[in-house]
Specification:
The protein is of the alpha/beta class. The protein contains ten helices and 19 strands. Helix content is 29%, strand content 23%. It has an eight-stranded mixed β-sheet. Strands 8-2-1-12-19-18 form a six-stranded mixed β-sheet, sandwiched between helices. The structure holds flavin-adenine dinucleotide and pyrrole-2-carboxylate.
Length: 416
């Protein structure tokens, strides 16, 4: 450590955090912007960042009803992978994976992207056939993947219960080596800081309460801080997408469900990868701090409460005990829920709407964190050019009329 960094550390340690440079400004909203993003989660912030960086739009605002990253971005289990079955989805998520791989450098902010690999377990012969098919499809799309059998798995993950006597014996897994985790709030902060540096106004405590339109074109948004005019509005409000659509007079094919997660007390490093199982409904990784980060399947009812039910908690704990009996005496520290908006085909909507200048990016369900940079990148293109990029053309609202659905229930993970 250099002398400069030692002095700077010491100065900051005794400074009571005074005179720290703000990571982003806290501006008063202007009367008009060239583009507005509603929702200051990772996807909304990434959209604004890439619109400014890639398309030269600088007069942009992100309007967030609470605090940035306070929605699903700050509530998720941070699993990143791109091993989806169908070409359209694999290409979209792989674009995101490539952006993740350079993100800390691009944002000049450490988002702690850790490519520790992701295993999706198979528990039946049919699971293993599906895994084989998906891994083959992944490779054809340039997405890394391999099929691992139970003998090899028990060498790689010694604490995983691969006993043939368990309720759902583990027969093998797909493995994506480039998959892993990232630090969720750092992702929001990194995008916010970089977008702010390009002139984007990030306005917190600013709820969008209505949309103004004239002759089929968007004019602006009503907010808790007054009316703001803009010819382009992107709605990126995971969990509340149907509510916002309703305000605009639109209907989305979306259901909103609670999805829960948990962290344990910190323990010594014992799990250096990510393990997911659709059959027992649980997924687990260990954070750099040592906590076990555990996630559930969705609570089956619709709702907007960020909590979830006891049944799901019990079910998830049973799943983790079955996979990792060694964790039976680890205590859980915290539990919380987020609201995920799920589409009938377990794929997102990144689309223009019938209202000119109004765009929706939603329906990522239980799996949108991994897509944060890619989702922002394609929405930025779509809004800047008023035309979908080829990577998101298939994810338009039209598919629910044409029937060209992209059924990713198999790869969406435990939760759908
Ligand atoms: P959010 O971060 O939810 O941002 C939307 C924002 O819109 C919120 O901040 C909200 O306050 C704001 N908003 C809402 N209404 C208004 C309004 N009227 N005006 C202004 N602002 C408004 N995905 C993965 O890929 N891997 C995982 O491991 C994973 N695990 C998950 C675990 C849990 C428990 C949950 C809940 C989700 C998980 N997901 C996971 C899904 C992932 O979190 C989401 O798909 C993703 O974070 C959505 O990002 P976002 O930026 O669109 O949404
Ligand atoms: O989509 O990989 C995923 C995921 C993991 C946990 C929740 N979603």
């Amino acid at each position: 450590m250099s002398r400069y960094s030692i002095f700077s550390l010491a100065r900051n340690a005794i400074s009571h955090h005074e005179n720290w440079q703000r990571a982003w400004r806290s501006p008063t909203p202007k009367k008009r912007y060239d583009a507005i993003i509603v929702g200051g989660g990772g996807h909304g912030l990434a959209s604004a960042y890439y619109m400014a960086k890639e398309h030269g739009l600088r007069n942009i605002a992100v309007l967030e009803k609470g605090w940035i990253g306070g929605g699903n971005t700050g509530r998720n289990t941070t699993i990143v992978r791109s091993n989806y079955l169908w070409d359209e989805a694999a290409q979209l998520y792989e674009k995101s994976m490539k952006l993740w791989e350079g993100l800390s450098q691009d944002l000049n902010y450490n988002v702690m992207f850790s490519q520790r690999g992701v295993y999706n377990l198979g528990h039946t012969l049919q699971d293993m056939r599906d895994i084989q098919r998906r891994v083959n499809a992944n490779r054809l799309n340039g997405v890394d993947g391999e099929v691992v059998d139970a003998v090899e798995l028990s060498k790689r993950i010694p604490h995983l219960n691969c006993s043939p006597d368990s309720r759902y014996p583990v027969l093998g897994a797909s493995f994506q080596p480039r998959g892993g985790t990232a630090r969720h709030d750092a992702v929001a902060w990194g995008f916010a800081r970089a977008a702010d540096a390009l002139g984007v106004d990030i306005i917190q405590n600013c709820e969008v309460t209505g949309f103004r339109r004239e002759n089929g074109e968007i004019q602006g948004v009503e907010t808790s801080q007054g009316y703001i005019e803009s010819p382009k509005v992107g709605v990126v409000t995971a969990g509340s997408s149907s509510v916002l659509a309703d305000l605009a007079g639109l209907r989305l094919p979306i259901e909103s469900h609670p999805l829960q997660a948990f962290v344990s007390e910190p323990i010594k490093p014992v799990l250096d990868t990510v393990v997911m199982s659709n059959a027992v409904h649980g997924y687990i990784s260990q954070s750099d701090k040592g906590d076990l980060v555990v996630g559930a399947g969705i609570d089956s009812y619709n709702g907007y409460g960020q909590r979830g039910s006891f049944t799901t908690i019990e079910h998830t704990m049973a799943a983790i005990m079955e996979l990792f009996p060694i964790f039976s005496r680890v205590r859980m520290n915290r539990q919380w829920g987020g609201i995920v908006d799920t589409c009938p085909d377990a794929c997102p909507i990144i689309s223009k709407t019938d209202i000119k200048g109004l765009y929706f990016n939603c329906g990522w369900g239980t799996g949108g964190f991994k897509a944060t940079p890619g989702s922002g990148w394609v929405l930025a293109h779509t809004m800047a050019n008023d035309q979908a990029h080829q990577l998101n053309a298939a994810f338009s609202l039209d598919r629910f009329i044409s029937g060209a659905l992209i059924d990713e229930h198999g790869a969406a993970g435990v939760a759908h």
